[in-house]
Amino acid sequence: MIPASILIISSDSETQSLLQQAIAKKCTCPTSAAAGKSAALNCFDPQTHELIFIDSRTVDPKLLTTLADIQSPLKNHTVVLLSHGRKISLGMEDEIPGIYEILHWPASGQHLASCIDRALERCMLIREKKQLQLDCRCHKIFAKIAGQSKNMQKILDSISTLAHGNETVFITGESGTGKELAARTLHRLSSRSGSPFIRVHCPSLPEESLIDEIFFRASDTALQTTDSHTFLNRARGGTLFLDEIGDISSRIQDKLLEYLKETPEPSYRSANIRLLIATNRDLGKKTESHAFSKELFEILSTRHIHLPPLRRRPEDIPPLAHFLLEKQAYKLKRYGRYISPELMKRLMAHPWEGNIRELENTIIHGLLFSSSQEIGPDDVLLSGPKPLGPCSAALHQDNYRDAKEEALKGFNHIYIGRLLKRSNGNISLAARACGLERQALQQIMKRYDISPVPYRPKTGCDGGYPE
Ligand SMILES: Nc1ncnc2c1ncn2[C@@H]1O[C@H](COP(=O)(O)OP(=O)(O)OP(=O)(O)O)[C@@H](O)[C@H]1O
């Protein structure tokens, strides 16, 4: 392994060529030379220059401090200082960040060769360490995502590739396919991972607030204000995730287009924010009916991650189901449960309109209601009434009465559904089990449209109770 490239900072052409010749005997990597401080600062690229030779006659070793400002500290670079008769004390060496070796110049051919060997080896070790750290980080981050299938691997590859950059990334897919998870993963893999990730749910903000908070109309002076609550200020240095942009007004589409085309929109630049944008709408179709800007759609599509619906990738269902079971079993403290082969078959055949979120809810239901370690088809509600979280839908209602009614509906579907499952759809037995009169339970079932039929055994006589 050889360093990506070497930089020699020396105004002395003889020193430059001696070093270049000695380096050429050891490796074939590109070597560039800078004759002075400003040339050095101009051509120094922290990403590619792994090995730097600095002639102390040409530039004050303090240049290193300046270079360190570019990528501070220079601990991932190997710096060799040519002392050239100038006495450089250990104390001074201590003050220079990132220095690896001081080579008294001119050096004998043997000294120079072994110094280059050591420096190249250090470059290689640093690169290996960086690669291992990256692998380790990716492994940890991807551990939160299930996906052994080719489909998922392709998606994970796109996420890793696009993570390294500052460009806007467009994430599409039906509801529950994992767009937010993809956006968060991209952020965590990027160099911005130490800074905030802020999600803006566009439909829940009025147009004016969206423009005020995100697309400052006047200038970035607004950004200098102490209003630390605006999305832009909260996302400073990090990632702003604009979720569900499918229905944004044409005025906001224009603002977004303006930003993406890099016309003056100083807010983003001074706040140093990366934009990730998601939608569950088919924007291609919306452009045909002129409901969405074609130009904006085309620009967004240049860096695009699409998450296919779960029904189009049934091979992902078993690994996802096992992954989600492990995740939720840990959360709910229901250890050791497993999915029966029969249930797995049913999961594979289900259309999953709600995608991975629906699969996750099904697994949660199974974990909560299975009476043994094995979660079977009877412990989940795949057909018949939908497994409603008692409060999830209610939380989206503004009106208190509507919200309460929604919560009661969810509660009754789950609670009575569980009773009916135990009684094989027999209402009298279910009523007895919960301490209600049969008629009272029947009234509740009628009110919330709960049918006992899906809970009754399909074969008829075995296990059916007379009403
Ligand atoms: N590949 C995956 N591995 C594990 N969990 C996943 C995966 N994809 C999605 N999930 C889980 O599924 C749920 C839904 O995912 P997410 O919220 O990211 O979907 P979404 O596409 O953003 O949905 P919406 O459009 O409704 O906002 C989350 O709990 C998420 O952690």
From TrEMBL:
CDD domains the record matches: AAA
Keyword terms: ATP-binding, Nucleotide-binding
Record GO terms (molecular function): ATP binding
GO biological process: regulation of DNA-templated transcription
Domain Sigma-54 factor interaction: 145-368
InterPro entries: AAA+_ATPase, AAA_lid_NorR, CheY-like_superfamily, Homeodomain-like_sf, P-loop_NTPase, Sigma_54_int
Protein name: Sigma-54-dependent Fis family transcriptional regulator
Species of the source: Desulfobotulus mexicanus
Lineage of origin: Bacteria, Pseudomonadati, Thermodesulfobacteriota, Desulfobacteria, Desulfobacterales
